[in-house]
Specification:
The protein folds into three domains: 154 residues, Rossmann fold; 61 residues, Helicase, Ruva Protein, domain 3, CATH 1.10.8.60; 97 residues, Zinc Finger, Delta Prime, domain 3. It has 16 helices and seven strands. The N and C termini lie far apart (64 Å).
Length: 365
C-alpha cells in the first residue's frame, strides 16, 4: 500500500478464513442507535440493528476475520460490497463500537456518498477529519475511522482524490467503503482496501431473525405469512423487516394474503393462473386476461415477470426451451426497468411463451 510511511496496522489483504458455522444466537438485545429514542413507531430496521459483531445475522467467516484483525490491532482499509440489506453497514458500525467504545461518536466520520459525492467533500470534510489529531481515551486504538456508505455513487474525480487522502493519512485513519456495485469503484481504491463480499442472506438466517422480532413484538404471524415475508425479501434483511412492520401496521394478523396485499406483489395463485393462460390461451385472450388481472389487483408487470421467471422452474419442459425462456424474460425485465411501454412488453411476454409452447410441442413429436 502506497503512503507516507508504514503503519503498524497495515496488512496484506487477507483471505476470509471460513469457520464452522456456530449456532445462530442473534437478537440478544433490543437496541437503538445512539441518539434515537425508543418509540413504538421506531423503524424496526433501526430498532433491531445489531450492536455487536456477535449479533450480526450471517457471514460469520467475514465477521470473524474482521473481528480478529480488530483484536490484533491490524484493521486495514475495508471495501464491503454486495446487495442491499446483507449486513455491510451493521458490520462496520459494530466494529467501530468495539474499537472505540464510549468515544465512538468522536472517532468516526460517517458520510453517505450518494449525498456527499463530489470532490469538495473529499478535500474538505474527509481531509479535515483525517488530518485532525485524535485524542482517544480508548486503550484499543487512537486510529480514526471514515465510513463512506454508498461509495459507488462517488464521482471518479472524488474517488481519485480519496485515493490520495488514503495514502497520506494511513497512519492515523482507516477508511471503510461500502457499496452495492464494486465495479464502480476505481481499481486504485480497490487495491488499497481489503475486499469482502456480502452475499444475499439465506432463508434460514432471515427466518431466525424475523422469528426473534415476532416474539419480541408479540405479533400474530402464521407460518405461511412468515414464509411469504422470507420469500419476498430475496435475501435482504432490511426488506424483510420493512415488510414485517408494514404488514403488521396494516393487519392485526399477518397471513400470506396480508403480506402480498400489503406489498402489492402478485400472489402465487395469480402467477399460476397467468402461466396457465400463457401456455394455453391464444395471444389475444392471454393479453386481455392478464391486462384485466393487472388492473383489478394493481399489479406491476415487472413483478409479474419476476414471479413468472421463478414459477417456470416448476413447469416440465426441455432444458433448452427453459433456458431460452429465462433469457427472454430477463430481457423483458431489463426493458421494463428502463420504463419501456407495459403493453409492448406484455406482448413480448406472451410471444416468448408462444415460442416456448411451439418448441415444447415440436420436442414431444
Amino acid at each position: 500500500m502506497a503512503g507516507n510511511g508504514e503503519s503498524a496496522m497495515e496488512v496484506e489483504e487477507p483471505e476470509p478464513q471460513p469457520k464452522s458455522a456456530a449456532p445462530m444466537e442473534k437478537g440478544k438485545a433490543v437496541v437503538v442507535p445512539a441518539g434515537l429514542p425508543l418509540h413504538k413507531d421506531t423503524p424496526w430496521v433501526e430498532k433491531y440493528r445489531p450492536q455487536s459483531l456477535a449479533d450480526v445475522a450471517a457471514h460469520r467467516d467475514i465477521v470473524d476475520t474482521i473481528d480478529r484483525l480488530t483484536s490484533e490491532n491490524k484493521l486495514p482499509h475495508l471495501l464491503l460490497y454486495g446487495p442491499p440489506g446483507t449486513g455491510k453497514t451493521s458490520t462496520i458500525l459494530a466494529v467501530a463500537r468495539k474499537i472505540y467504545g464510549s468515544q465512538y461518536q468522536n472517532m468516526i466520520l460517517e458520510l453517505n456518498a450518494s449525498d456527499d459525492r463530489g470532490i469538495d467533500v473529499v478535500r474538505q470534510q474527509i481531509q479535515d477529519f483525517a488530518s485532525t489529531q485524535s485524542f482517544s481515551f480508548s486503550s484499543k486504538s487512537s486510529v480514526k475511522l471514515v465510513l463512506l456508505d454508498e461509495a459507488d455513487a462517488m464521482t471518479k474525480d472524488a474517488q481519485f482524490a480519496l485515493r490520495r487522502v488514503i495514502e497520506k493519512y494511513t497512519k492515523s485513519t482507516r477508511f471503510a467503503l461500502i457499496c452495492n456495485h464494486v465495479n464502480k469503484i476505481i481499481p486504485a481504491l480497490q487495491s488499497r482496501c481489503t475486499r469482502f463480499r456480502f452475499a444475499p442472506l439465506n432463508a434460514a438466517h432471515i427466518t431466525e431473525r424475523v422469528q426473534f422480532i415476532i416474539k419480541a413484538e408479540g405479533i400474530d404471524v402464521t407460518d405461511s405469512g412468515l414464509a411469504a415475508i422470507v420469500r419476498l425479501s430475496n435475501g435482504d434483511m432490511r426488506k424483510a423487516l420493512n415488510i414485517l412492520q408494514s404488514t403488521h401496521m396494516a393487519s392485526p394478523r399477518i397471513t400470506e394474503d396480508a403480506v402480498y396485499l400489503c406489498t402489492g406483489n402478485p400472489m402465487p395463485k395469480d402467477i399460476e393462473q397467468i402461466c396457465f393462460w400463457l401456455l394455453n390461451e391464444a395471444f389475444a385472450a392471454s393479453f386481455r386476461r392478464i391486462s384485466e388481472l393487472k388492473t383489478k389487483k394493481g399489479l406491476a408487470l415487472i413483478d409479474i415477470v419476476r414471479e413468472v421467471t421463478v414459477f417456470i422452474f416448476k413447469i416440465k419442459m426441455p432444458s433448452d426451451v427453459r433456458v431460452q425462456l429465462i433469457n427472454d424474460l430477463a430481457d423483458i425485465e431489463y426493458r421494463l426497468s428502463f420504463g419501456c411501454n407495459d403493453k409492448l412488453q406484455l406482448g413480448s411476454l406472451i410471444s416468448s411463451f408462444t415460442h416456448a409452447r411451439s418448441a415444447m410441442v415440436a420436442a414431444a413429436k
